[in-house]
């Protein structure tokens, strides 16, 4: 096998990915090529690709077609302004969660405008640390200096969250706790803002192959037929742990908007509303104490 031109290799990869049904085939082909060639942008790449790199590129395209998430192929995932590490066994953060962070930042700014200093923020089920790190770094850039804690039961996820926080220069306190038994570890400390992208998928929902075969099921399914067992625990915890005027921002399934609002109001929140994702679907709960 001889060397290939970069252009022909990109055309080949894009065509293969498009034929497999990937709508962002051109972007994914470019991402894989940048990873193989170890360049930040293809404009920095040589016009000719060596034999070994050509083989590697084709292997990655084949793995992607077989359902491997591109984040696990390259070891990187992007979230808001962050470039984070991804690894096997840890939930891959998705674009829809960016709206959760957007809402949480708005709540943090509201609290700061009301006179709150050194906001205390807790991210439950932090996974890779994406939400906690985005909040800490973005609020810091806005002139706030929040104290951010991130709770996670998975040792692999905690390790990755620590690595991502270090890479981003974020000061995050990572805690080894299980949100489903929060009464066993909560010692009465209060928080201004609680944020979470918890497991919430209802039982029996058919998920895409790349999700069900690669994301840990413990990070996907929320428990019970309706997937609401873990979200219920988070709402219960937030009702106890938030300060007066504080807020909970929690991602949920697009079928759970009404149930999460009702649960929050039953638990004593003064208001509860449903936020939409970029596709216009019910995606997160915003509840204020």
Automatic annotation (TrEMBL):
Domain Release factor glutamine methyltransferase N-terminal: 9-75
Catalysed transformations (reactions): L-glutaminyl-[peptide chain release factor] + S-adenosyl-L-methionine = N(5)-methyl-L-glutaminyl-[peptide chain release factor] + S-adenosyl-L-homocysteine + H(+)
Domain of life per record: Bacteria
Keywords for the protein's UniProt record, in alphabetical order: Methyltransferase, S-adenosyl-L-methionine, Transferase
Domain Methyltransferase small positions: 118-201
InterPro entries, per the entry: DNA_methylase_N6_adenine_CS, HemK-like, N5-glutamine_MTase, PrmC_N, SAM-dependent_MTases_sf, Small_mtfrase_dom
A Pfam family annotated for this UniProt entry: MTS
Enzyme Commission code: 2.1.1.297
Name the record gives this protein: peptide chain release factor N(5)-glutamine methyltransferase
């Amino acid at each position: 096998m001889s060397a290939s031109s970069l252009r022909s290799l990109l055309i080949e990869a894009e065509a293969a990915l498009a034929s497999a049904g990937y709508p962002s085939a051109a972007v994914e082909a470019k991402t894989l090529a940048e990873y193989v060639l170890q360049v930040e942008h293809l404009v920095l790449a040589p016009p000719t690709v060596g034999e070994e790199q050509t083989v590697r590129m084709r292997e990655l395209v084949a793995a992607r077609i077989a359902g491997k998430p591109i984040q696990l192929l390259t070891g990187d995932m992007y979230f808001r302004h962050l470039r984070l590490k991804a690894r096997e066994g840890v939930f891959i953060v998705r674009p829809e969660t960016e709206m959760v962070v957007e809402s949480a930042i708005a709540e943090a700014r509201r609290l700061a405008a009301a006179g709150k200093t050194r906001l205390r923020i807790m991210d439950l089920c932090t996974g890779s640390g994406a939400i906690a790190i985005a909040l800490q770094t973005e609020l810091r850039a806005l002139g706030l200096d929040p104290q951010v804690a991130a709770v996670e039961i998975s040792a692999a996820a905690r390790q990755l969250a620590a690595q991502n926080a270090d890479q981003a220069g974020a000061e995050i306190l990572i805690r080894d706790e299980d949100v489903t038994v929060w009464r066993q570890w909560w010692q009465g400390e209060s928080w201004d803002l609680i944020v979470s992208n918890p497991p919430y998928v209802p039982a029996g929902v058919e998920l895409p192959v790349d999700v069900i075969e690669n994301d840990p099921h413990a990070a996907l399914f929320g428990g019970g037929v309706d997937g609401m067992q873990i979200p219920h625990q988070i709402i219960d915890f937030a009702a106890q742990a938030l300060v007066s005027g504080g807020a909970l921002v929690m991602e949920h399934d697009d079928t759970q908007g009404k149930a999460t609002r009702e649960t929050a109001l039953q638990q004593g929140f003064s208001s509860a509303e449903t936020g939409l994702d970029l596709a216009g679907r019910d995606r997160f709960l915003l509840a204020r104490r």
